[in-house]
Amino acid sequence: MTRQELVDSLGTIASSGTAKFLKTLKESQEANVDSNLIGQFGVGFYSAFLVSDKVAVSTKSPKSEQQYVWEAEAESNSYTIREETDPEKLIPRGTRLTLYLKRDDKGFAHPERIQKLLKNYSQFVSFPIYTWQEKGFTKEVEVDEDPAEVKTEGDGEPKKEVKKKTKTVVEKYWDWELTNETQPIWLRTPKEVSTEEYNEFYKKTFNEYLD
């Protein structure tokens, strides 16, 4: 986003997208346009402050040479916008959202918690969502055994040799993992959607336990 787009989109709760979302939805329905509006507006952006002391939005628009940072604190009624000057924090384009979690909400930073939330609430979002996850693979490594005495002919003095053996270890590493691999249920042909998939979508969407 540009600086002006930051002001327009995140300046107030009223302009965070709800009114524009409803207006566009109505226009698309009247025009009989099949438009996927989910994720196009900032509806719900301010819910981030429920678990955060501070929220920072760093963004670089292709229409601007500058990268801007929007910051606001949960207990404040104002926000700041500044130009990013730290070379290590510059991004080519796009937006980086940083939540400074409250002490009691640090658990939301755990990778498994993030992945579970995304699977529950963003599984059917039509664009890919990746999470930073710890992964591992197994490999064989050599380990030294205690030296074993081996008798030799000639001088009669025993010689020691080290026997080699291997064990399986898990090598840990971090990488991005696609979290929402399912195509949105409403974009698929009805005949291709099974009863189990309908039930799963219904239960997750409406927090129901029955089919």
TrEMBL record:
InterPro entries: HATPase_C_sf, Hsp90_fam, Hsp90_N. SUPFAM superfamilies: ATPase domain of HSP90 chaperone/DNA topoisomerase II/histidine kinase (SSF55874). Keywords: ATP-binding, Chaperone, Nucleotide-binding. It comes from the Eukaryota. The keyword NAD does not apply. GO terms for molecular function: ATP binding; ATP hydrolysis activity; ATP-dependent protein folding chaperone; unfolded protein binding. This is Histidine kinase/HSP90-like ATPase domain-containing protein.
